[in-house]
Amino acid sequence: MPGTVTVVHATDAPPPRWDASLFLAGPTPRSADVPSWRPAAVDLIRRHWAGPGDLVVFVPESSTGAFTADYDDQIGWELRWLSAADQVLFWVPRDLATLPGLTTNDEWGWLKDSGRAVFGSPPDAAKVRYQREYARNHGIPLADTLDAAVRAALGRIGTGAPRADGERHVPLLVWSAPEFRHWYAAQRAAGNTLRDAGVVWTLRVSGALVYWAARVSVAIAAEGGRIKDNEVVVGRPDISAVVLYRRGATVRDTQLVLVREFRSPGCAPDGYVHEFPGGSGGFTDPARAARAELAEETGLALAPERLRAHGVRQLAATMSVHRGHVFSAEVTAGELARLTAAPGPHGSGDTERTWVETTTFGELLDGGRADWATMGMAAQVLADVDGR
Predict the structure, then answer these.
(1) Contact 231/187 with Cβ under 8 angstroms?
(2) How many domains does the chain have?
(3) Residues 225 and 362 in one domain
(4) What is the pLDDT of residue 69?
(5) Does residue 54 sit in the same domain as residue 106?
(6) Is the pTM of the predicted complex or chain greater than 0.85?
(7) Which residues cross the membrane (predicted)?
(8) 207 vs 23, higher pLDDT
């Protein structure tokens, strides 16, 4: 049996928990003789909602249908729940005389690339050519009927996920991200409470979420409930890295294999990042990702049994929740020579281009090219293989 559908009208408080949320954005009638399209949308939502949980539908109109000219409270209400909704259904039956939808243009502007927008308009709607073309060219669900728009929005929601209180402000797109789930599980295990949140931005590639940033307000249990609400949490997929080494007479003499790659945030004197081969690789198995990234960035293919795992840690705990899975393998003299003789470029064209570099741990310590995360990976691996 499908769950309930609860309609929340302008300025009304939503329920303290839900499984899914949908905001109905679009032109609002300014006079009583112009009918609203939203009651028909709510009827369609009730008909098509098949999720087992509770769906909240935000309707930015009063329950009586009356329009309030002084609506400062409504503006705040709309901005808050537009930001929180799992999906925002834009239905724009634009008529320049009766339903101009000027505010809708602004809402579409800041939400169209959020991964949470669906756009629909009837064939005779005025001044929607730009919005429709943008949606078509950027993979945003596009509909010609209200029924199709509702189906598209509910299809993206799926069955939703239970959330309560501050959790309601994390849309499904981010809530379902593995990196968010790991971060939030750690906060819950520590006894902390998510009081409020807001997704600042997301970056998607081919429809898949790659980066996200969320402003959070957390009550810290170990500090008597002190509220921390002045930071942004950034997420991206976890990485797997491979430390290739060849033992030297001392730890400082141990040879290491790095890759040099231009990454836009890099601050080294040459503008490049000098790190161990690695990346997310698109695999759920960290060891498989490690071998794939190693082959792509250095040309060296390793058998699975040659990889040694050294654990997983967060990489930049003051900002990002993503973690690094670290592996190592000792290379032969021949492999090291081949890597040195064919430094590159390797990678996948313009998006990734790497060159192999060999160095010693001592040079890595003294040179200042590698970041602290890379230094930490090297220290962990060398401590483990040295055995002392």
Answers:
(1) no
(2) 3
(3) no
(4) 57
(5) yes
(6) yes
(7) none
(8) 23
